[in-house]
Amino acid sequence: MDRPLVITEDHDLLDDLLRVAAAAGAELDVAHVPAHARPHWNRAPLVVVGSDMADALAATGPPPRHRVILVTRTPDDPDTWRKCVTVGAQAVLELPSAERQLVDEFADVVEPEARAGLVVCVAGGRGGAGASVLATSLALSASRRHLRTLLVDADPLGGGLDLLLGQEEADGARWSDLVAREGRVSFTALQAALPTFAELTLLSFHRGEVEPIPAEAMRSVLEAGRRGFDLVVVDLPRHPDQAAVEALSRASTTLLVVTADVRGVLAAAQVLAGLRKHTGEVHAVVRGGVLDDEVVTASLRVPYAGSLPDQPRLAVALNRGDVPPLGRRTSLGRFCASFLDSLLGVES
């Protein structure tokens, strides 16, 4: 694959461009004189010309092409727009103020075609309802269908989804490594940084004290996830914080796990009120209990996504470090299969 081309002799500018390109997961071809740029001029998906080389490049008469950007570290230089015209650039970007825009430009040309992945959020109607187990199981089931899947732990107090996968010792980044992220993140760089098992990529928390996820970091991760994954599953806290709001605003659907007892329904109603402020489609997943499923969904006034009867030996398997059992004979496996069929429009 051809790489973006940078034409500059300004070493400070080049350092800036290499750092910005790295943030987008891009490698660059660099030409310090116009003659060295000639073999790459037509093939490069993007050409970035330093203002120091604009006149020298224009003197060689390069053929017109799309996606040429002039960059400068000298704001308000009255000669900048003349240089832009001489090299046939379509835009001028001033650094450092335009670094985020330049990251986007690099990412656009180095990433494969976006997948427009679906986002599914899962929240518990009360503590211990099983939302984290369901989120993990949905992600596992999707990955076993060879769907590229990102599982995002958005509950700082949830104990860690890596434990449910038996991968707490897996190498890779956690939220604490990403909380400073703003702007666009390359999904290829994100996937390379995170623990990945076949088609499943996981973003969880470190053990110990955790900080809330900044909204900007969640936004960057989810946008990268939607571009690079077929499905993004987000395990939410019961009270939506700023990061959870970012996920809810992008969700195709949100599953609320409700225990079928009076206290569970009353608690779920409070959680539901918070979810509805930020997302449009919420469905109830009913955990078996003393109330009928119809009574639960009628009380909450939400559509019914399905039921999850208690599954023998599930708790034992999870405490042993095994992944959730998802065979067709298990209630969890049947629910995940049915839900994914419906979400993906697969006829049963």
TrEMBL record:
Transmembrane segments: none annotated. Residues 7-114 form the Rv3660c-like CheY-like N-terminal domain. SUPFAM superfamilies: P-loop containing nucleoside triphosphate hydrolases. It holds the Pfam family CBP_BcsQ. GO terms for cellular component: cytoplasmic side of plasma membrane; cytosol. InterPro entries: Cellulose_synthase_operon_BcsQ (IPR017746), P-loop_NTPase (IPR027417), ParA/MinD_ATPase (IPR050625), Rv3660c (IPR022521), Rv3660c_N (IPR059050). GO terms for biological process: negative regulation of cell division. One of its GO terms (molecular function) is ATP binding. It comes from the Bacteria. PANTHER family: SEPTUM SITE DETERMINING PROTEIN, SEPTUM SITE-DETERMINING PROTEIN MIND HOMOLOG, CHLOROPLASTIC-RELATED. This is Rv3660c-like CheY-like N-terminal domain-containing protein. It comes from Streptosporangium roseum (strain ATCC 12428 / DSM 43021 / JCM 3005 / KCTC 9067 / NCIMB 10171 / NRRL 2505 / NI 9100).
